[in-house]
Each structure stands twice: as structure tokens, then as C-alpha cells.
Amino acid sequence: MIYSPQSPGHHNDEECGSTHFPSAGDPEETLPMEKYNAELKDPGVDDTNEVPLSRNSRFLIWTILNVISTVGIVFTNKAIMSDLSFRNRQISLAAYHFCITGATLWIASLRFFSVFTPKYVNLVQMAPIAAAMAIQVVLQNLSLAHSSVMFHQLARLLLTPMVGLLNYILYRVKIPRAALVPLVLLCSGVAIVTYYDSLPTADNGSTTSTWGVIFALTAVCASSIYTVWIGFYHKRFELSSMQLLLNQAPISAGILLCAIPWAETSPSVSTVPSNIWSLVLLSGILACFVNLSQFYIVDAAGAVSGAVIGQLKTCIIVGLGWAWSNHPVPCESVLGIMMALIGMSM
């Protein structure tokens, strides 16, 4: 669903000069050996082999940044919301991220950087998708605050079957029969993890609360609606993902900033530990890297490569969440994790 301008590193083959070889038996047209060797060493010819290497290097760097920043922001946000001062500040955190994202994209669109060309859409027309974006991000933050990292990330896998269901209901787009078995396997695995991860344990109560399950499932529903609308807005207004997000982020931030006085109570600055403020700053920086790197990956390598990298990030986050959990993971949950990941991979 990315319709982007031509990615950097594109090489125009017409710029490469070609060596003229004279016909045999024409001594006056024959090139001296020195000139012939010089033309073979023409940098315009050799550069064609260097461009793909440069593009591959940039793609690898952005991929590493995307994986590190995505994994880092999940655990950073979990640490922030584990603090009592920020446990109920999900709206503020989402508004902060939208402000950072909007500012980053605005800077990237400036002529000095020219990462993409901005295209603006009427505020009223953008309001619905901006509101959907804000709601699904807040629900994700609530899910992360009341759930384990492992369950939160696995629940996000339900986005795929939910989008398929919505596309069928709204646009009669049928799901291929070959995809039904993997989707059933995925949903069954998530259901198993949901049940066993929400059971009370002897040491610290339930890892994932009932509210955590509710927030996770409603976040999936909201994200599915938002994902379907993204495709609609791409086609209707002919926007690339960067252009669409540049229009959305400031409006989403404004909506959440208006809601903060009614939904949250500001903590006393003196009671917040300094390390939490450092994590908040880090969270904003990671959000910038996540957005910019994700766009570059999909623009440069396509949606399929983006999905594969997404699978890698899911495995890393689930694995780290499992390793760092402070309670034993039941064998049934392990089975559910494997079923969900195998189903999503298939």
C-alpha cells in the first residue's frame, strides 16, 4: 500500500557511456591501446556495479535500525507505564509520540532533506482516520500497561485475520482457502496464550489482567479499522504513506491533547524519577526511527519484505518477553506461542 516517489540510489542506465568498437579492416578507425584501456576504465561504466552495493548497505542499516527501535520502544514503553506516575498516562504518551512523528516527517519533507514531497488534505476529510489512529494507539498503550509483553505482542497477530474479516464484510473480498488453516492455527494459538497468561499465579497475581485482554482485543479491532481505512485514503487522495502520516499525526496529537485534561491527572514532576524522564525521551527518539525506517524498508523492498521483517521483530519481542518474565511460562502457553507464530508464518 506504499505509493512513494522513486527511492534513492536509482541508477539511470542511459547515463552509462558505451565503448565504440570499430569494424575490422578499417585501420583509420582503430583505437590506440591506451585509449581503449582508458575507456574500459571509464568510471561511468564501473559505477553500475557500485550502486546496488550501496543500496543494499543502506537497506541493511535501515533494517537493523527498524528492528532495534521497534523492539526497544515496546520494552521502553512497558518500563515507562510500569511506573506509578505514568501507569495511567497512555493518552499523554501517545500524544507525545504523534508530536514527535509529525515534527520528524515535517523536517524530512523540507527541501533541504527532500525525503518526500508533502501533499496536504483538508482537515475535515482527514479527521476520521486521524481519530481512528489516535484511538488504536491509546488502546495499544493500555494493553501494554495491563498485559505482559509476550501476550501484548502475540495479540497483535490477530490483526491479520481481523483485517481479512473486515475486508470481506465491507468489500466482499474473500480470503483464499489456503489461508484459512494458518489463520485458524494463529487464532487458536493466541487463544491458548490468552487463557494461560491471564490465570492467577501464586507469586504475583495474574500476569495479564482481564482489562489487559479487553484492551488488547479492542486495540486489534480499532487497528483493523484503521488499516482498512489506510488503503481507502491511499487510493482516494493518492497519498504515499509518508504524506498520509504527515497529515494524520498533527490532527491525532491535537485530538489527544484536548482529551488529556478530561481523562488524566498530571503527576507531580518532583515525584517522577529522573530515569523515567530519560526513558520518555528515549521513547520519542525510538518512535522517530521506527516510522522513518519502516517507510524506507517498504519503499525499497516492498510489502513482502516488510512483513518478513515484522515476523522477525515479533519473534524477538516474544522471546525477550518470555526470557525476562518473572514467572514460569506454562507448557500450554509455549504451545500456543508456537502455534501462533507458525500460523502467521504460513
TrEMBL record:
InterPro entries xref list: EamA_dom (IPR000620), TPT_transporter (IPR050186)
Signal peptide segment: none
Q: Where does the record place a coiled coil? A: none
Start and end residues of each EamA domain: 211-344
Localization annotation: Golgi apparatus membrane; Cytoplasmic vesicle membrane; Endoplasmic reticulum membrane
Q: How does it sit in the membrane?
A: Multi-pass membrane protein
* Listed transmembrane segments: 59-81, 93-113, 120-139, 151-171, 178-196, 208-232, 244-263, 275-293, 300-324
Give the start-end ranges of region Disordered: 1-28
Annotated Pfam families? EamA (PF00892)
Task: Please provide the record's keywords in A-Z order.
Answer: Cytoplasmic vesicle, Endoplasmic reticulum, Golgi apparatus, Membrane, Sugar transport, Transmembrane, Transmembrane helix, Transport
As for what it does, the entry says: Involved in the import of GDP-mannose from the cytoplasm into the Golgi lumen.
Similarity comment: family membership: Belongs to the TPT transporter family. SLC35D subfamily.
Complexes and interactors: Homooligomer.
Q: What protein name is recorded for this chain?
A: GDP-mannose transporter
